[in-house]
Design brief:
The chain is about 10% helix and about 45% strand. The chain is built from 9 helices and 45 strands.
Length: about 900
């Protein structure tokens, strides 16, 4: 490496004058292992927008608009390590650079194996998610650390959820309209064909769409873009799945103007790190392209990744203390195997047709049509005629007996302790026995297993224009239309031994789920409980102008979005007989966006960049309807406050330093969100003005304001040709900025309860650590082996607070009158937001490559949390102790009965990847 570096510097200074009036930089890029030219390498003048790609001979050339003096050329291509070459550009001379080398990057074998959506902590409450997939393609040191080092702690860049970043495939946005988030499972297991990513970070301009606060990622699936050849990969892990096998082949462009790429994969395992979390996933991909002529090309893509996985439960600290951090309450033994009652199942194929039109050398038009359809199901047990089947149900834990109103029942607590320690899992045999007994007695089933289903059909059509109007100006524009029809219902998937059917009536209050079919008896494969459609139409457009000069670059971008939602009830629910069947009112929202930024280049080494933006956007479907399973009601119906678009203002400033040995970025940012809504579902205990004070409720939090303020820093130093040092830090403060309005609705009080302001201002927003840092090193040997290690620090992780306990409901008894013994000081202590302990995690990675004839073999290994650090990665307060009296009593118990529920991070895990390329 050292010899090549000095050889390269020698070449840089051998300038040959070809045209006195023209400045030219050209060169050839080769594979260091094979010495063969590499096609499609992105060559960029660092700190500028000057880019080009190598041709089939590995050659590139720049001949206009070149910055003079000391510059750095960066070479990048998926599957290779980035390279940076210092050069000197002299006016009117030609710089010819030969034998520029790129090395294969084995570390990218872990790309997308941070498990993406497989690491969703809680699908039902959206308590946490991670965006490692959105960031994993970035070469920015901070973004890579966020994706690989911080993701296992569910760190969120700038404290933002994944709906703030857009994921596109061939220019088609893949974020779900239901919650705005990308559904990574729709393309999981296709790592080899998802590596071609174009990432714009934050508010930076994108060629495809307006983007979100976290930027956008376009994944290029064109058949002609894949390197010709094949790849077979085997992986082993103890994270989500235990085995993975993938095979991929791409033809490159062949005679007749055809190109194709195929990939198949399978991931499976009886159990991941959490108990009972099986994994069963298959993946299929095909991309076929026909180059019609020099201007037109058609590409077809098909993706199908059916997958099933067992989910894991959040637990109270009492449960973790009894069973450990791998405990999962959702499974139990059945016929000698672990059977999980909560299974997430996804089967949503994606079909795309893309037309690429090079109108001229400087103008292109990309028109796309995509159709996605299929099923998403989450299973769970229903127990109309039986006891709660949860093995961690609070009445079966020691804390319940210790909290006995007549004094602690130590004997009962001991028996519960022993029973839970030795068992503590779903008792499938008892469930089947209960149903068999009901068969004999002629009664309906006591238990069934059912799925909450969403069967979506979405059509997307868009067209994307890019035109270089002049040497300094580029125009981007796009129009996009989406049409969604989402059928949502509950379906019985297993009668669990019953042959007498199941009554489609709410067992708690005997309310008919469907008045059109009263006392309906249902069986396996039948719909029950709820049944409705959601129709959505979204029309959006964006226009952007980019201006690039030697010292200054700047851009301006604007967007317009029209969104429509409408619910159609297929059941007439008895509680909402006048507001559930048929079509509800059509809701319309208008979203506007504007952003801009400028970059000032003090020199090739020092760059300053500022971006600012404002956008308003429609609430997601999830946060528009208060309880779409039962009625047409929308957010604001009970509060008297009209639902409106969410408003976001954001700003960031960046200082970037780049030299031949050091790259660094320092960023300051501020984001304010206003008028957001959140709808949550839970069982509340201690509700003022309600008989018994208990009910299953829908909590509507309206008009939420949040602020996200912080700094990011990343640095990497190539101290020798073989050794690289890295350092990353993120310091943020993410808080509620106001006291939003809180309304409860429930079938037990149809008119709803408006509790006014929830005192959330200055509470921290939950969702991973608000402060994180990493230091590490990497050694790469010239003999194609490498290893590295990082030490990662995390701080300021908070529990998600219960808004209901921060309203007037907290100091009111169930009769609506204030508590006579209310103590403000004690109340303040009870409502103090829990902050988790700070922690440190050590990770290590390594790999080796071999060339065997014309074939290549590479091995990659990563080890996470080597020293088995135990830490809470998230959690939320329960709504069971919703007022002062009940929370005070619960907190005074020897063990809390309704303490917060937590997620713990994984202990030591590994990932091994072995691939064979031909």
């Amino acid at each position: 490496m050292k010899k090549q570096f000095f050889s390269f510097l020698f070449v840089c200074f051998n300038l040959s004058l070809v045209f006195a009036q023209q400045t030219v930089v050209k060169g050839i890029v080769k594979d260091m292992l094979t010495d063969q030219p590499i096609i499609g390498v992105l060559v960029n003048f660092e700190g500028t927008q000057l880019t080009t790609y190598t041709n089939e001979l590995g050659a590139f050339e720049f001949s206009s608009g070149l910055p003079l003096g000391e510059q750095i050329l960066t070479l990048s291509k998926v599957g290779y390590l980035n390279a940076r070459y210092p050069i000197i550009v002299s006016e009117g001379q030609t710089l010819s650079i030969q034998d520029m080398m790129l090395s294969l990057d084995n570390s990218d074998d872990d790309l997308f194996t941070i498990t993406l959506s497989d690491d969703e902590l809680n699908d039902d409450t959206s308590g946490a998610d991670n965006i490692s997939g959105l960031l994993s393609a970035s070469q920015d040191i901070f973004q890579r650390a966020a994706a690989f080092e911080f993701s296992s702690s569910f760190f969120r860049v700038r404290g933002l959820n994944s709906e703030n970043g857009n994921v596109l495939m061939n220019g088609i946005e893949m974020n779900k309209l239901f919650d705005g988030r990308p559904q990574w499972s729709n393309w999981g297991g296709l790592n080899d064909v998802l590596r071609g990513q174009e990432l714009s970070m934050g508010l930076a301009p994108s060629s495809y769409n307006f983007g979100g606060l976290l930027g956008s990622t376009n994944i290029n699936l064109r058949a002609s873009s894949y390197r010709a050849g094949g790849r077979i990969t085997y992986s082993s892990s103890n994270r989500s799945y235990t085995n993975r096998l993938m095979a991929t082949y791409a033809s490159g462009m062949v005679d007749g103007g055809w190109a194709y790429a195929f990939s198949i994969g399978r991931r499976w395992g009886n159990e991941g790190f959490q108990d009972g979390t099986f994994y069963d996933a298959n993946s299929f991909f095909a991309s076929v392209e026909k180059k019609i002529n020099d201007k037109h090309s058609l590409n077809f893509v098909g993706i199908y990744t059916p997958n099933r996985r067992g989910k894991s439960s959040p637990n109270t600290q009492e449960v973790f203390d009894l069973k450990g951090i791998t405990y999962n309450e959702y499974w139990g033994w059945h016929d000698g195997e672990k059977r999980n009652s909560r299974v997430r199942r996804i089967a949503e194929p994606v079909l795309m047709l893309n037309h690429y039109w090079d109108i001229s050398e400087k103008t292109s038009l990309n028109t796309n049509v995509a159709y996605q359809f299929g099923e998403l199901g989450n299973s769970r047990l229903d127990y109309a005629g039986g006891a709660n089947p949860s093995p961690a149900y609070y009445q079966g834990l020691p804390s319940y007996f210790l909290a006995d109103t007549d004094g602690p029942d130590y004997a009962g607590a001991y028996l519960a302790d022993q029973s839970f320690r030795t068992g503590g899992q779903v008792n499938w045999n008892r469930i089947y026995d209960a149903n068999l007994t009901n068969n004999i007695n002629g009664d309906y089933a006591a238990y069934v297993l059912y799925e909450d289903r969403s069967d979506d059909e979405q059509l997307t059509v868009n067209t994307i224009l890019e035109s270089q109007l002049s040497e300094h100006t580029t125009l981007n524009a796009a129009i996009n239309y989406k049409r969604l029809k989402s059928h949502n219902f509950a379906e019985i998937v297993d009668m669990l031994g019953s042959n007498t059917g199941y009554l489609n009536v709410d067992s708690f209050d005997q309310v008919q789920f469907d008045l059109q079919n009263p006392n309906q008896v249902v069986g396996e494969g039948d719909t029950f409980r709820y049944n409705y459609n959601i129709d959505a139409n979204v029309l959006s457009s964006f226009l952007q102008a980019q201006f690039k000069y030697n010292k200054v670059d700047f851009f301006l971008s604007g967007s317009y979005t029209a969104t429509e939602y409408q619910r159609e009830g297929l059941y007439q629910t008895e509680t909402y007989a006048d507001n559930s069947l048929g079509k509800g009112r059509k809701l319309s929202f208008t979203g506007l966006g504007a952003k801009g930024g400028f970059t000032y280049k003090f020199s090739g080494k020092h760059i300053f960049n500022v971006n600012a933006g404002y956008l308003s956007k429609a609430p997601t479907i999830r946060n528009t309807f208060t309880n779409s399973r039962e009625n047409h009601a929308i957010v604001g119906d009970k509060s008297g406050i009209n639902i409106t678009e969410e408003k976001i203002t954001s700003f960031d400033a960046n200082y970037i330093f780049r030299s031949s040995t050091v790259k660094a970025r320092l960023t300051g940012y501020y984001t304010q969100m206003q008028d957001a809504n959140e709808v949550s579902f839970y069982f509340a205990d201690g509700i003022s003005g309600v008989d018994q004070g208990t009910a299953f409720v829908q909590e509507i939090l309206q008009g939420i304001d949040k602020s996200h303020l912080g700094m990011e820093f990343g640095i990497e130093a190539q101290v020798t040709p073989s050794i690289k040092l890295t350092g990353v830090a993120s310091v943020g403060q993410f808080t509620y900025d106001n006291n939003p309005n809180l309304v409860l609705t429930s079938s037990d009080f149809v008119e709803g309860l408006n509790f006014g302001e929830a005192q959330l201002e200055n509470y921290k927003i939950a969702g991973g650590p608000q402060q994180a840092a990493s230091i590490g090193f990497e050694y790469r040997d010239p003999n194609y082996w490498w290893f590295g290690a990082t030490t990662n620090f995390f701080a300021n992780t908070y529990v998600d607070v219960s808004p209901l306990t921060r309203t007037e409901n907290f100091y009111l008894d169930t009769d609506g009158l204030p508590f006579s013994d209310y103590d403000p000081n004690l109340a303040r202590e009870l409502l103090r937001q829990e902050r988790f302990e700070d922690y440190m995690v050590v990770n290590a990675v390594g790999g080796k490559s071999w060339k065997i004839g014309d074939y290549y073999v590479s091995l990659f290994v990563s080890l996470n949390n080597i020293f088995n650090q135990k830490y809470k990665s998230g959690g939320f307060e329960q709504g069971r102790s919703a007022n002062y009296q009940s929370l005070k009593e619960d907190a005074a118990n020897p063990k809390r009965v309704f303490g917060p529920k937590y997620w713990y991070g994984r202990g030591p895990t590994y990932f091994l990847n072995l691939n064979f390329r031909f």
